[in-house]
């Protein structure tokens, strides 16, 4: 830490500065902005997975009262950029549709109701084509190519460590497992939407959108609309959840912005839930064919992983989801374990499904589940306790910095300690004894572990590829500080955490720091929020900016108090001389002086109190870690899984606000329970999405999520403030822990879970099959 | 139901619209709406009460929950014309002039919200539970909010907040 005497706010459970407006119902999300004369858009979306468009007849639609325009690709001929794979998505389908939900036409009318009326009047003639829905078949271009001009497989890469073959072949034991993780999606409670306001005087376009990267959105809009960047202003107001989905750039944004420009009116589009499930970034959808080599002690010597990832019909600009999923899952495949050798092969294909993008954790949840299942499978094969096998393989405190076989360098963490503390919290030995008794009574209770490593604050993430963040600070003459940041919070509480860090640098109250974000006119250029980068990189920038402003305040105070700069302390709203608290001046007075009594400034000091700081952490990433432990009970008659207990021991370095960190963990665990037991986007054999409502795509409710116990360990990073990112770790770890717990519960039936989510009918079938087999035997 | 509620049958007015009287947060509004307009849309876009959020329009997520005659209802599953003459309360109606209600303050203390989108629906649902006189326990709170989806918090701090608010109210 810096020389700040007593951090008053950093590390404290400060209640959020954001909350009052949100609780009072006064916060404003995109749809809450009303401008006179606003037109609304409704999209006609493809109801076919694959078809040639023979004709689109908009005559009747245009005749609907209130309709101003009906556009097809010919009216808005813009295609999203995609340099690497040459399959850029036209903002409205061009000649062919490639997934159910792809926008085909846009109606712009005086109300959403009327726009939807007109959508129903558009007549599209389709010539159906065979849909590509199976990723293995897609690899062989079966039944056809999704994009005629190129094979379905768009990415193939391998990484094999030197000596893999010898290590693998000479090992005494081997096992093979195939994992399948079905499609899921982030489901933000606020659907995507945007509102574009043209300014006929300046030619400037203002776009309101719920987005994780305000500057990223501005850059793409400017590029596609062929406007200079300064002519586009993006305003991200309150955002009702992001989870990766809202880091992407979508075709609808272009159509809405272009409509506003061309019609000279404000134009708004707010997606409905069906549109969200059809066309927000999907996630996961990967197969991992894994082979493991290990010794008698359960030490894992080598792992081979062949990944097949299905990215859907198009690649999001800058983020083809299947590649993100496969890269993260395989780069982190060895997790917290000392596995010396890996052989990785990744193949990614196009299919006639919605485009895959990021969802919290990206490939992390899959990688962590595979890594933990490997350990559990080895334990089961050797008849050992899964905890023993973990202890035999864990990276120890002496191993840092630890170089993984995939080229990552882990900074210090608390892998073993987090495991031991989690076990102690549930009294593991006792649990195993109880478990035996319960089994004898016909109750199937299981315990699952996930010891996770979470890469954070990487130079590149779905929110963009800049490795730094910026914070501008202005202390107003009143002494209140206005901070502007380039991050894109969607509920993580940046206004509070950044204020805590800044207030501690300046010795002022946290409520006297107002954090602005989201408006590209006031925010410094930033990468936005994603990849758990905001706390570490943005927080680091906040500290650096605070330090810079503190230096100036200190210099001024030293001059006015006639003391040496090194003797000046800033605390509780005052600057004073160390050891002589009576020799003091309020920070408010310093601020007023800096602006309005400039004759008293030291020679050469510029009036005013305004700084900008940019911060890039020293490492390529910093790694959070922890252990999740789930106890579940499985009803073998109904297949229903109930989570009885859940423990998290989390280490994300220095905690800025433990309350906010715990909130992040709770939410990630809930999403992990959904991922493991409830959530699945199901396509039928024709490529039709059959889960287009929240009655079909099941989200965890308050009755599905148990009470969680969370404990913290703090192993500081080398980044400013010792902070590590932690937004994704809980969703990375939870599905693996739940899956492992179900496997453990059903061990008497020989069940080992390899497919997520786990459906009740699968559990019933597995148990039935085991019983039938036992009878036959 | 109040005896003094004046029954006003919808009257056909402007092309395709009917005039209705909506009683929202104790105030009467005479407005012309299309019969197909959802109560949620009318509250938000006709009356400017944007505290009520729309999350799914499928009756599942609970973000649009308002009180109708004191009972939590999904305003996306109701046409505005069906709400004619009934007492509607939105989050704005449960919010004091200044500051926060005891329940809202408990939400703040316990970090029971993150993105805030489901929050007004949660407040409305939980306020109804607190006013119902039913016992407020971990189980009854979870049951009460089981129709309100929150994607951020994992519910635990919401449960804590409601339990705390109930304890305070009992004092």
Task: Kindly summarize this structure in a few lines.
Chain A is 29% helix and 25% strand. With 777 residues, chain A is of the alpha+beta class.
Summarize the biggest pleated sheet of chain A. Answer: 7 strands, mixed
Please mark out the parts of chain A with pLDDT under 50 across 5 or more consecutive residues, or reply none.
Answer: none
Approximate shape of chain B: elongated
Determine the CATH topology of the largest domain in chain B. Ubiquitin-like (UB roll)
Q: Over the alpha carbons, how many angstroms does the gyration radius of chain B reach?
A: 17 Å
**Helicity of chain B, as a percent range:** 25-40%
Strands of chain A, count: 29
Based on CA atoms alone, the radius of gyration of chain A comes out at: 28 Å
Shape of chain A: globular
Beta content of chain B comes to 15-25%
Q: Tell me the span between the first and last alpha carbons of chain A.
A: 66 Å
| Helicity of chain A, as a percent range | 25-40%
Number of helices of chain A: 19
Most extensive interface: A-B, 55 and 58 residues
* Largest beta-sheet characterization of chain B: 6 strands, mixed
CATH architecture of the largest domain in chain A: 2-Layer Sandwich
Molecular structure report:
The complex is a heterodimer of chains A (777) and B (171). Chain A folds into three domains: 19-26 and 468-615, Aldehyde oxidase/xanthine dehydrogenase, molybdopterin binding domain (Aldehyde Oxidoreductase, domain 4); 33-129 and 190-240 and 245-279, Aldehyde Oxidoreductase, domain 3, CATH 3.90.1170.50; 364-369 and 379-456 and 620-776, Aldehyde oxidase/xanthine dehydrogenase, molybdopterin binding domain (Aldehyde Oxidoreductase, domain 4), CATH 3.30.365. Chain A contains 19 helices and 29 strands. Chain A has a seven-stranded mixed sheet. A six-stranded mixed sheet of chain A has the order 7-15-14-13-8-29. In chain A, strands 18-26-27-28 form a four-stranded mixed sheet, with helices on both faces. Chain A starts with 18 loop residues before the first helix and ends with a helix. By secondary structure, chain B is α+β, with helices and mostly antiparallel strands. Chain B folds into two domains: 11-91, Beta-grasp domain (Ubiquitin-like (UB roll), Roll), CATH 3.10.20.30; 102-170, Orthogonal Bundle (DNA polymerase, domain 1). Chain B has five helices and six strands. Chain B has helices spanning 39-46, 102-109, 119-132, 138-144, 156-170; strands at 11-12, 18-24, 27-33, 65-68, 71-74, 87-89. In chain B, strands 1, 2, 3, 4, 5 and 6 form a six-stranded mixed sheet that branches. The longest helix of chain B has 15 residues, at 156-170. Classes of the chains: A alpha+beta (777), B alpha+beta (171). At the A-B interface, helix 1 and helix 17 of A face helix 2, helix 3, helix 4 and helix 5 of B.
């Amino acid at each position: 830490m810096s020389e700040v005497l007593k951090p008053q706010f950093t590390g404290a459970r400060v209640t959020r500065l954001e909350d009052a407006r949100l609780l009072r119902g006064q916060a404003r999300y995109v749809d809450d902005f009303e401008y006179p004369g606003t037109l609304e858009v409704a999209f006609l979306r493809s109801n076919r997975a694959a078809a040639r468009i023979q004709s689109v007849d908009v005559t009747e639609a245009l005749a609907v009262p209130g309709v101003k325009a009906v556009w097809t690709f010919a009216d808005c001929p813009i295609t999203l950029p995609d340099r690497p794979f040459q399959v850029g998505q036209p903002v409205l389908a061009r000649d062919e549709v490639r997934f159910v939900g792809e926008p085909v036409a846009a109606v712009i009318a005086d109300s959403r109701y009327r726009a939807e009326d007109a959508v129903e009047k558009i007549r599209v003639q389709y010539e159906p084509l065979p849909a590509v829905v199976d990723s293995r078949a897609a690899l062989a271009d079966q039944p056809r190519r999704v994009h005629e001009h190129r094979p379905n497989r768009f990415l193939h890469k391998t990484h094999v460590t030197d000596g893999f073959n010898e290590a693998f072949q000479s090992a005494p034991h081997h096992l093979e497992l195939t994992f399948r993780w079905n499609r899921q999606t982030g489901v933000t409670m606020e659907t995507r939407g945007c509102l574009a306001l043209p300014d006929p005087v300046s030619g400037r376009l203002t776009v309101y959108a719920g987005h994780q990267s305000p500057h990223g959105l501005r850059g793409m809009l400017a590029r596609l609309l062929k406007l200079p960047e300064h002519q586009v202003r993006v305003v991200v107001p309150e955002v009702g959840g992001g989870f990766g989905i809202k880091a992407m750039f979508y075709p609808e944004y272009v159509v809405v912005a272009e409509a506003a420009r061309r019609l000279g009116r404000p134009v708004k589009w707010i997606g409905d839930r069906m549109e969200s499930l059809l066309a927000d970034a999907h996630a996961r959808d990967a197969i991992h064919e894994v082979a493991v080599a290990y010794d008698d002690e359960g030490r894992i010597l080598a792992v081979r992983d062949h990944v097949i990832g299905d990215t859907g019909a198009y690649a999001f600009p800058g983020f083809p989801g299947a590649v993100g999923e496969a890269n993260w899952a395989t780069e982190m495949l060895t997790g917290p374990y000392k596995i010396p050798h890996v052989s990785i092969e990744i193949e990614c294909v196009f299919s006639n499904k919605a485009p895959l993008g990021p969802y919290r954790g990206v490939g992390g949840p899959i990688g962590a589940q595979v890594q933990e299942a490997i350990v559990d499978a080895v334990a089961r094969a050797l008849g050992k306790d899964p905890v023993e096998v973990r202890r035999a393989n864990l990276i120890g405190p002496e191993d840092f910095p630890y170089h993984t076989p995939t080229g990552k360098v882990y900074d210090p963490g608390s892998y073993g300690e987090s495991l031991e503390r989690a076990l102690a919290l549930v009294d593991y030995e006792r649990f195993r004894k109880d478990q035996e008794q319960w089994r004898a009574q016909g109750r199937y209770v299981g315990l699952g572990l996930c010891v996770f490593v979470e890469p954070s604050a990487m130079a590149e993430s779905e929110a963009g590829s800049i490795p730094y963040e910026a914070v501008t600070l202005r202390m107003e003459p009143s002494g209140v500080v206005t901070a502007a940041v380039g991050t894109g919070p969607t509920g993580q509480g940046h206004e509070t955490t950044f204020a805590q860090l800044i207030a501690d640098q300046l010795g002022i109250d946290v409520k006297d720091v107002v954090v602005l974000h989201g408006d590209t006119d006031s925010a410094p250029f930033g990468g936005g929020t994603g990849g758990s980068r905001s706390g570490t990189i943005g927080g680091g920038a906040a500290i650096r900016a605070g330090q810079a402003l503190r230096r100036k305040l200190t210099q001024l105070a030293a001059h006015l108090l006639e003391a040496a700069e090194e003797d000046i302390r800033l605390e509780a709203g005052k600057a004073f001389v160390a050891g002589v608290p009576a020799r003091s001046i309020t920070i408010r007075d310093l601020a007023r002086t800096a602006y309005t009594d400039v004759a008293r400034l030291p020679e050469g000091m510029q009036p005013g109190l305004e700084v900008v700081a940019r911060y890039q952490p020293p490492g390529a990433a910093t790694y959070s870690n922890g252990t999740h432990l789930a106890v579940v009970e499985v009803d073998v008659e109904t297949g229903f899984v109930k989570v009885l207990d859940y423990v998290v021991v989390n280490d994300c370095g220095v905690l800025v606000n433990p309350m906010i960190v715990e909130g992040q963990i709770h939410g990630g665990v809930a999403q992990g329970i959904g991922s493991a037991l409830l959530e699945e986007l199901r396509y039928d054999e024709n490529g039709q999405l059959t889960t287009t409502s929240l009655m079909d795509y099941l989200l965890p409710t308050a009755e599905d999520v148990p009470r969680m116990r969370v404990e913290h360990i703090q192993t500081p990073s080398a980044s400013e403030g010792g902070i590590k990112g932690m937004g994704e770790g809980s969703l990375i770890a939870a599905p693996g822990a739940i899956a492992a717990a179900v496997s453990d519960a059903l061990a008497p039936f020989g069940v080992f879970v390899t497919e997520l989510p786990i459906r009740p009918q699968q559990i019933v079938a597995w148990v039935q099959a085991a019983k039938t087999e036992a009878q036959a035997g | 139901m109040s005896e003094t509620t004046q029954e006003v049958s919808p009257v056909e007015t402007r092309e395709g619209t009917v005039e209705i009287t909506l009683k929202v947060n104790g105030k009467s509004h005479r407005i012309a709406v299309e019969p197909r307009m959802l109560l949620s849309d009318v509250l938000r876009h006709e009356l400017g009460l944007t505290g009520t959020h729309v999350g799914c329009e499928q009756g599942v997520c609970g973000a649009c929950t308002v009180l109708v005659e004191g009972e939590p209802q999904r305003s996306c599953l109701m046409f505005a014309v069906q709400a004619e003459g009934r007492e509607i309360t939105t989050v704005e109606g449960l919010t004091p002039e200044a500051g926060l209600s005891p329940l809202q303050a408990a939400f703040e203390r316990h970090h029971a919200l993150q993105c805030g989108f489901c929050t007004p629906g949660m407040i409305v649902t939980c306020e109804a539970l607190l006013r119902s006189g039913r016992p407020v326990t971990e189980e009854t709170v979870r049951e009460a909010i089981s129709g309100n989806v929150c994607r951020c918090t994992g519910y635990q701090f919401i449960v804590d907040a409601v339990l705390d608010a109930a304890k305070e109210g009992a004092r």
